[in-house]
Protein backbone atom coordinates (compact mmCIF):
# COMPACT_ATOMS: atom_id res chain seq x y z
CA UNK A 1 0.00 0.00 0.00
CA UNK A 2 1.54 3.33 -1.04
CA UNK A 3 -0.41 5.53 1.39
CA UNK A 4 -0.69 4.97 5.11
CA UNK A 5 -3.82 2.98 5.99
CA UNK A 6 -6.88 5.13 6.68
CA UNK A 7 -8.76 4.29 9.88
CA UNK A 8 -12.27 5.59 10.61
CA UNK A 9 -13.74 5.37 14.12
CA UNK A 10 -17.54 5.48 13.91
CA UNK A 11 -18.69 6.60 17.36
CA UNK A 12 -15.43 8.33 18.22
CA UNK A 13 -17.10 10.56 20.83
CA UNK A 14 -18.32 7.62 22.93
CA UNK A 15 -16.60 5.87 25.83
CA UNK A 16 -14.92 3.16 23.75
CA UNK A 17 -14.24 5.40 20.73
CA UNK A 18 -12.55 8.10 22.81
CA UNK A 19 -10.17 5.57 24.37
CA UNK A 20 -9.31 4.08 20.97
CA UNK A 21 -8.59 7.61 19.76
CA UNK A 22 -6.29 8.18 22.74
CA UNK A 23 -4.46 4.92 22.10
CA UNK A 24 -3.92 5.82 18.42
CA UNK A 25 -2.84 9.40 19.06
CA UNK A 26 0.69 10.00 17.84
CA UNK A 27 0.81 6.89 15.66
CA UNK A 28 2.74 7.55 12.48
CA UNK A 29 1.88 4.27 10.73
CA UNK A 30 -1.76 5.16 10.04
CA UNK A 31 -4.09 8.06 9.25
CA UNK A 32 -7.19 8.73 11.35
CA UNK A 33 -10.36 9.96 9.68
CA UNK A 34 -12.79 11.78 11.97
CA UNK A 35 -16.10 13.48 11.27
CA UNK A 36 -16.95 16.90 12.76
CA UNK A 37 -18.98 16.44 15.98
CA UNK A 38 -22.19 17.77 14.37
CA UNK A 39 -21.93 15.22 11.55
CA UNK A 40 -21.12 12.18 13.68
CA UNK A 41 -24.63 10.75 13.25
CA UNK A 42 -25.21 11.85 9.63
CA UNK A 43 -25.76 8.55 7.77
CA UNK A 44 -24.53 9.96 4.44
CA UNK A 45 -21.30 11.35 5.88
CA UNK A 46 -20.72 8.15 7.86
CA UNK A 47 -21.29 6.05 4.74
CA UNK A 48 -18.71 8.14 2.82
CA UNK A 49 -16.23 7.84 5.68
CA UNK A 50 -16.69 4.09 6.15
CA UNK A 51 -16.37 3.37 2.43
CA UNK A 52 -13.24 5.49 2.08
CA UNK A 53 -11.51 3.76 5.02
CA UNK A 54 -9.18 0.78 4.92
CA UNK A 55 -10.41 -0.26 8.35
CA UNK A 56 -13.56 1.03 10.06
CA UNK A 57 -13.82 0.67 13.83
CA UNK A 58 -17.44 0.64 14.99
CA UNK A 59 -17.89 1.95 18.55
CA UNK A 60 -21.66 2.21 18.41
CA UNK A 61 -24.80 0.73 19.94
CA UNK A 62 -25.74 -2.58 18.27
CA UNK A 63 -28.43 -1.14 15.96
CA UNK A 64 -26.12 1.62 14.72
CA UNK A 65 -23.32 -0.94 14.19
CA UNK A 66 -25.63 -3.10 12.05
CA UNK A 67 -26.63 0.00 10.11
CA UNK A 68 -22.97 0.94 9.62
CA UNK A 69 -22.22 -2.49 8.14
CA UNK A 70 -25.22 -2.16 5.82
CA UNK A 71 -23.75 1.12 4.52
CA UNK A 72 -20.62 -0.62 3.19
CA UNK A 73 -20.45 -0.95 -0.58
CA UNK A 74 -16.67 -0.94 -0.98
CA UNK A 75 -15.65 -4.63 -0.83
CA UNK A 76 -12.15 -3.71 0.38
CA UNK A 77 -13.30 -2.06 3.61
CA UNK A 78 -12.36 -4.08 6.69
CA UNK A 79 -14.28 -3.74 9.93
CA UNK A 80 -13.68 -4.14 13.67
CA UNK A 81 -17.02 -3.99 15.46
CA UNK A 82 -16.81 -3.22 19.21
CA UNK A 83 -20.55 -3.74 19.67
CA UNK A 84 -22.30 -7.01 20.47
CA UNK A 85 -24.14 -7.07 17.11
CA UNK A 86 -21.97 -9.76 15.47
CA UNK A 87 -20.30 -11.68 18.30
CA UNK A 88 -22.07 -14.97 17.67
CA UNK A 89 -22.21 -14.54 13.88
CA UNK A 90 -20.13 -17.29 12.17
CA UNK A 91 -19.38 -14.91 9.28
CA UNK A 92 -17.36 -12.73 11.65
CA UNK A 93 -13.93 -13.54 13.13
CA UNK A 94 -13.92 -13.36 16.93
CA UNK A 95 -11.33 -10.77 17.94
CA UNK A 96 -9.68 -12.61 20.81
CA UNK A 97 -6.17 -13.38 19.53
CA UNK A 98 -5.11 -15.46 22.56
CA UNK A 99 -8.16 -17.70 22.54
CA UNK A 100 -6.72 -20.45 20.34
CA UNK A 101 -3.69 -21.22 18.18
CA UNK A 102 -4.07 -19.52 14.81
CA UNK A 103 -6.63 -16.94 16.00
CA UNK A 104 -4.15 -14.05 15.62
CA UNK A 105 -3.56 -15.10 12.02
CA UNK A 106 -7.29 -15.40 11.36
CA UNK A 107 -7.81 -11.88 12.72
CA UNK A 108 -4.83 -10.55 10.74
CA UNK A 109 -6.39 -11.65 7.45
CA UNK A 110 -10.07 -11.11 8.27
CA UNK A 111 -12.43 -8.66 6.56
CA UNK A 112 -14.88 -8.62 9.50
CA UNK A 113 -13.70 -8.83 13.10
CA UNK A 114 -16.03 -8.71 16.09
CA UNK A 115 -14.42 -7.49 19.30
CA UNK A 116 -15.31 -9.61 22.36
CA UNK A 117 -17.60 -8.19 25.05
CA UNK A 118 -15.96 -6.92 28.20
CA UNK A 119 -17.30 -9.55 30.59
CA UNK A 120 -17.02 -12.39 28.01
CA UNK A 121 -13.32 -11.58 27.60
CA UNK A 122 -12.68 -12.67 31.21
CA UNK A 123 -15.09 -15.61 31.20
CA UNK A 124 -13.83 -17.05 27.91
CA UNK A 125 -10.18 -16.48 28.87
CA UNK A 126 -10.73 -18.68 31.94
CA UNK A 127 -13.16 -21.28 30.67
CA UNK A 128 -12.19 -22.08 27.09
CA UNK A 129 -8.73 -23.58 27.85
CA UNK A 130 -10.12 -25.53 30.81
CA UNK A 131 -13.05 -26.98 28.86
CA UNK A 132 -10.73 -27.86 25.98
CA UNK A 133 -8.32 -29.57 28.40
CA UNK A 134 -11.19 -31.67 29.76
CA UNK A 135 -10.79 -30.19 33.24
CA UNK A 136 -14.16 -28.40 33.32
CA UNK A 137 -17.04 -30.35 31.75
CA UNK A 138 -18.74 -28.49 28.90
CA UNK A 139 -22.07 -28.97 30.69
CA UNK A 140 -20.90 -27.77 34.12
CA UNK A 141 -23.70 -25.70 35.74
CA UNK A 142 -21.72 -22.45 35.79
CA UNK A 143 -22.53 -19.20 37.55
CA UNK A 144 -20.33 -16.26 36.55
CA UNK A 145 -20.16 -13.19 38.80
CA UNK A 146 -18.51 -9.96 37.76
CA UNK A 147 -18.08 -6.43 39.06
CA UNK A 148 -17.31 -3.70 36.55
CA UNK A 149 -16.56 -0.01 36.65
CA UNK A 150 -19.53 2.16 35.69
CA UNK A 151 -18.02 3.08 32.29
CA UNK A 152 -19.19 -0.36 31.10
CA UNK A 153 -22.61 1.25 30.74
CA UNK A 154 -21.26 3.78 28.22
CA UNK A 155 -21.70 7.52 28.07
CA UNK A 156 -25.12 7.64 29.76
CA UNK A 157 -23.85 5.75 32.83
CA UNK A 158 -20.62 7.77 32.94
CA UNK A 159 -22.80 10.90 33.06
CA UNK A 160 -24.67 9.50 36.10
CA UNK A 161 -21.39 9.10 37.99
CA UNK A 162 -19.51 12.15 36.73
CA UNK A 163 -22.31 14.64 35.91
CA UNK A 164 -24.17 17.19 38.01
CA UNK A 165 -26.13 14.52 39.94
CA UNK A 166 -23.11 12.32 40.70
CA UNK A 167 -23.65 12.58 44.48
CA UNK A 168 -26.85 10.55 44.05
CA UNK A 169 -25.26 7.72 42.03
CA UNK A 170 -25.49 4.32 43.74
CA UNK A 171 -22.23 3.03 45.28
CA UNK A 172 -22.91 -0.49 43.99
CA UNK A 173 -25.55 -2.05 41.75
CA UNK A 174 -26.27 -5.69 40.95
CA UNK A 175 -28.38 -5.91 37.81
CA UNK A 176 -29.53 -8.27 35.06
CA UNK A 177 -31.76 -10.04 37.56
CA UNK A 178 -34.01 -11.43 34.82
CA UNK A 179 -30.93 -13.49 33.84
CA UNK A 180 -31.30 -12.41 30.22
CA UNK A 181 -28.10 -10.37 29.89
CA UNK A 182 -26.73 -10.23 26.33
CA UNK A 183 -23.43 -11.92 27.26
CA UNK A 184 -24.22 -15.59 28.11
CA UNK A 185 -24.78 -16.68 24.47
CA UNK A 186 -21.40 -15.16 23.50
CA UNK A 187 -19.69 -16.81 26.49
CA UNK A 188 -21.34 -20.17 25.80
CA UNK A 189 -20.32 -20.19 22.14
CA UNK A 190 -16.72 -19.14 22.49
CA UNK A 191 -15.97 -21.01 25.73
CA UNK A 192 -17.34 -24.20 24.15
CA UNK A 193 -20.09 -24.79 26.73
CA UNK A 194 -23.14 -26.95 26.07
CA UNK A 195 -25.21 -25.23 28.81
CA UNK A 196 -25.90 -21.52 29.07
CA UNK A 197 -24.10 -20.12 32.14
CA UNK A 198 -25.90 -18.01 34.73
CA UNK A 199 -24.43 -14.51 34.61
CA UNK A 200 -24.66 -12.08 37.55
CA UNK A 201 -23.19 -8.65 36.67
CA UNK A 202 -22.67 -5.70 39.01
CA UNK A 203 -21.03 -2.32 38.77
CA UNK A 204 -19.58 -0.03 41.39
CA UNK A 205 -18.72 3.63 41.87
CA UNK A 206 -15.36 3.38 40.12
CA UNK A 207 -14.77 4.33 36.52
CA UNK A 208 -13.19 1.28 34.96
CA UNK A 209 -11.87 -2.20 35.71
CA UNK A 210 -13.42 -5.64 36.16
CA UNK A 211 -13.06 -8.53 38.59
CA UNK A 212 -14.84 -11.61 37.24
CA UNK A 213 -15.13 -14.80 39.33
CA UNK A 214 -16.36 -18.32 38.65
CA UNK A 215 -16.72 -20.74 41.58
CA UNK A 216 -16.31 -24.47 40.93
CA UNK A 217 -17.00 -27.50 43.12
CA UNK A 218 -14.25 -30.14 42.76
CA UNK A 219 -16.86 -32.91 43.16
CA UNK A 220 -18.47 -31.77 39.87
CA UNK A 221 -15.15 -31.82 38.01
CA UNK A 222 -13.39 -34.91 36.60
CA UNK A 223 -11.55 -36.76 39.38
CA UNK A 224 -8.13 -35.80 37.97
CA UNK A 225 -8.91 -32.07 38.11
CA UNK A 226 -7.42 -29.99 40.92
CA UNK A 227 -6.64 -26.31 41.31
CA UNK A 228 -3.01 -27.06 40.46
CA UNK A 229 -4.06 -28.84 37.24
CA UNK A 230 -6.40 -25.99 36.32
CA UNK A 231 -3.67 -23.41 36.92
CA UNK A 232 -1.16 -25.45 34.91
CA UNK A 233 -3.60 -25.72 31.98
CA UNK A 234 -4.06 -21.93 31.96
CA UNK A 235 -0.31 -21.38 32.25
CA UNK A 236 0.27 -23.70 29.28
CA UNK A 237 -2.40 -22.00 27.19
CA UNK A 238 -1.14 -18.46 27.84
CA UNK A 239 2.58 -19.22 27.75
CA UNK A 240 4.22 -16.39 25.81
CA UNK A 241 1.04 -14.30 25.65
CA UNK A 242 2.05 -10.67 26.01
CA UNK A 243 -1.12 -9.41 27.63
CA UNK A 244 -2.41 -12.36 29.68
CA UNK A 245 -0.63 -13.63 32.78
CA UNK A 246 -1.60 -16.42 35.18
CA UNK A 247 -0.82 -15.95 38.88
CA UNK A 248 1.69 -18.54 40.07
CA UNK A 249 0.81 -20.75 43.07
CA UNK A 250 2.98 -18.50 45.27
CA UNK A 251 1.36 -15.33 43.97
CA UNK A 252 -2.05 -16.93 44.46
CA UNK A 253 -1.25 -17.83 48.07
CA UNK A 254 0.04 -14.33 48.76
CA UNK A 255 -2.96 -12.60 47.14
CA UNK A 256 -5.60 -11.63 49.68
CA UNK A 257 -7.80 -9.47 47.50
CA UNK A 258 -8.32 -8.55 43.87
CA UNK A 259 -8.40 -4.92 42.77
CA UNK A 260 -10.54 -4.38 39.64
CA UNK A 261 -8.52 -1.30 38.72
CA UNK A 262 -5.19 -3.23 38.63
CA UNK A 263 -4.86 -3.07 34.85
CA UNK A 264 -6.61 0.22 34.12
CA UNK A 265 -5.49 1.94 30.93
CA UNK A 266 -3.59 -1.13 29.78
CA UNK A 267 -4.46 -4.10 27.60
CA UNK A 268 -3.36 -6.61 30.26
CA UNK A 269 -5.32 -9.30 32.06
CA UNK A 270 -4.41 -11.38 35.13
CA UNK A 271 -5.98 -14.80 35.65
CA UNK A 272 -5.95 -16.62 38.98
CA UNK A 273 -6.97 -20.01 40.36
CA UNK A 274 -7.69 -20.05 44.09
CA UNK A 275 -9.08 -22.80 46.25
CA UNK A 276 -9.85 -24.44 49.56
CA UNK A 277 -8.78 -28.07 49.09
CA UNK A 278 -10.45 -29.22 52.30
CA UNK A 279 -13.84 -28.05 51.08
CA UNK A 280 -13.22 -28.93 47.43
CA UNK A 281 -13.86 -25.30 46.41
CA UNK A 282 -12.07 -23.64 43.49
CA UNK A 283 -12.34 -20.03 42.36
CA UNK A 284 -11.34 -18.85 38.88
CA UNK A 285 -10.67 -15.11 38.62
CA UNK A 286 -9.94 -12.61 35.88
CA UNK A 287 -8.89 -8.99 36.42
CA UNK A 288 -8.75 -6.55 33.50
CA UNK A 289 -9.88 -3.13 32.30
CA UNK A 290 -13.34 -3.16 30.68
CA UNK A 291 -12.07 -0.39 28.43
CA UNK A 292 -8.65 -2.01 27.93
CA UNK A 293 -8.64 -5.73 27.14
CA UNK A 294 -12.44 -5.47 27.45
CA UNK A 295 -12.91 -2.97 24.60
CA UNK A 296 -10.58 -0.26 23.30
CA UNK A 297 -7.27 -2.00 24.06
CA UNK A 298 -8.54 -5.18 22.43
CA UNK A 299 -9.74 -3.21 19.38
CA UNK A 300 -6.29 -1.66 18.93
CA UNK A 301 -4.64 -5.09 19.39
CA UNK A 302 -6.89 -6.42 16.61
CA UNK A 303 -6.24 -3.34 14.48
CA UNK A 304 -2.49 -3.90 14.79
CA UNK A 305 -2.89 -7.51 13.68
CA UNK A 306 -4.99 -6.42 10.69
CA UNK A 307 -2.48 -3.70 9.74
CA UNK A 308 0.27 -6.29 9.38
CA UNK A 309 1.03 -6.57 5.73
CA UNK A 310 -1.19 -3.65 4.64
N1 LIG B 1 -18.15 0.67 27.69
C1 LIG B 1 -17.62 -0.56 27.71
O1 LIG B 1 -16.99 -0.99 28.72
C2 LIG B 1 -17.71 -1.45 26.53
C3 LIG B 1 -18.48 -1.14 25.43
N2 LIG B 1 -18.53 -2.01 24.37
C4 LIG B 1 -19.39 -1.80 23.22
O2 LIG B 1 -18.94 -0.70 22.45
C5 LIG B 1 -20.05 -0.05 21.86
C6 LIG B 1 -19.98 1.42 22.26
O3 LIG B 1 -20.10 1.46 23.67
P1 LIG B 1 -19.73 2.72 24.52
O4 LIG B 1 -18.57 3.43 23.92
O5 LIG B 1 -19.65 2.28 25.92
O6 LIG B 1 -21.07 3.57 24.30
P2 LIG B 1 -21.28 5.14 24.36
O7 LIG B 1 -22.73 5.36 24.57
O8 LIG B 1 -20.34 5.75 25.32
O9 LIG B 1 -20.87 5.61 22.91
C7 LIG B 1 -21.60 5.31 21.76
C8 LIG B 1 -21.31 6.37 20.74
O10 LIG B 1 -22.06 6.09 19.57
C9 LIG B 1 -22.70 7.28 19.14
N3 LIG B 1 -23.89 6.93 18.37
C10 LIG B 1 -25.07 6.43 18.82
N4 LIG B 1 -25.90 6.19 17.78
C11 LIG B 1 -25.23 6.56 16.66
C12 LIG B 1 -25.54 6.57 15.28
N5 LIG B 1 -26.72 6.17 14.82
N6 LIG B 1 -24.60 6.99 14.40
C13 LIG B 1 -23.39 7.41 14.84
N7 LIG B 1 -23.04 7.46 16.14
C14 LIG B 1 -23.94 7.03 17.04
C15 LIG B 1 -23.01 8.01 20.42
O11 LIG B 1 -23.25 9.38 20.21
P3 LIG B 1 -23.94 10.26 21.35
O12 LIG B 1 -23.44 9.81 22.69
O13 LIG B 1 -23.55 11.62 21.05
O14 LIG B 1 -25.39 10.02 21.23
C16 LIG B 1 -21.76 7.77 21.22
O15 LIG B 1 -20.76 8.70 20.91
C17 LIG B 1 -21.33 -0.69 22.41
O16 LIG B 1 -21.87 -1.51 21.43
C18 LIG B 1 -20.84 -1.48 23.61
O17 LIG B 1 -21.59 -2.67 23.76
C19 LIG B 1 -17.73 -3.10 24.35
C20 LIG B 1 -16.99 -3.47 25.40
C21 LIG B 1 -16.95 -2.68 26.62
C1 LIG C 1 -21.30 -2.13 33.74
C2 LIG C 1 -22.18 -2.28 32.52
O1 LIG C 1 -23.23 -1.68 32.41
N1 LIG C 1 -21.77 -3.13 31.60
C3 LIG C 1 -22.47 -3.39 30.37
C4 LIG C 1 -21.62 -4.29 29.54
C5 LIG C 1 -20.74 -3.51 28.65
C6 LIG C 1 -21.23 -3.54 27.26
O2 LIG C 1 -21.65 -2.55 26.72
O3 LIG C 1 -21.25 -4.72 26.73
P1 LIG C 1 -20.13 -5.26 25.77
O4 LIG C 1 -18.91 -5.34 26.57
O5 LIG C 1 -20.65 -6.57 25.34
O6 LIG C 1 -20.05 -4.39 24.60
C7 LIG C 1 -23.78 -4.13 30.53
O7 LIG C 1 -23.88 -4.94 31.41
O8 LIG C 1 -24.64 -3.94 29.66
UniProtKB/TrEMBL annotation:
Where, per UniProt, does this protein localize?
Answer: Cytoplasm
Q: Which residues form the active site?
A: 118
An example molecular function term from Gene Ontology annotations: N-acetyl-gamma-glutamyl-phosphate reductase activity
Q: Which CDD domains match?
A: AGPR_2_C, AGPR_2_N
Alphabetized, the UniProt keywords read:
Amino-acid biosynthesis, Arginine biosynthesis, Cytoplasm, NADP, Oxidoreductase
- Gene3D superfamilies from the xrefs? Dihydrodipicolinate Reductase, domain 2, NAD(P)-binding Rossmann-like Domain
What is the catalytic activity of this protein? N-acetyl-L-glutamate 5-semialdehyde + phosphate + NADP(+) = N-acetyl-L-glutamyl 5-phosphate + NADPH + H(+)
Start and end residues of each Semialdehyde dehydrogenase NAD-binding domain: 6-107
Q: What does this protein do?
A: Catalyzes the NADPH-dependent reduction of N-acetyl-5-glutamyl phosphate to yield N-acetyl-L-glutamate 5-semialdehyde.
User: What protein family does this chain belong to?
Assistant: Belongs to the NAGSA dehydrogenase family. Type 2 subfamily.
Its recorded name reads: N-acetyl-gamma-glutamyl-phosphate reductase
- Supply the source organism's classification: Bacteria, Pseudomonadati, Pseudomonadota, Betaproteobacteria, Burkholderiales
Q: Which gene encodes it?
A: argC
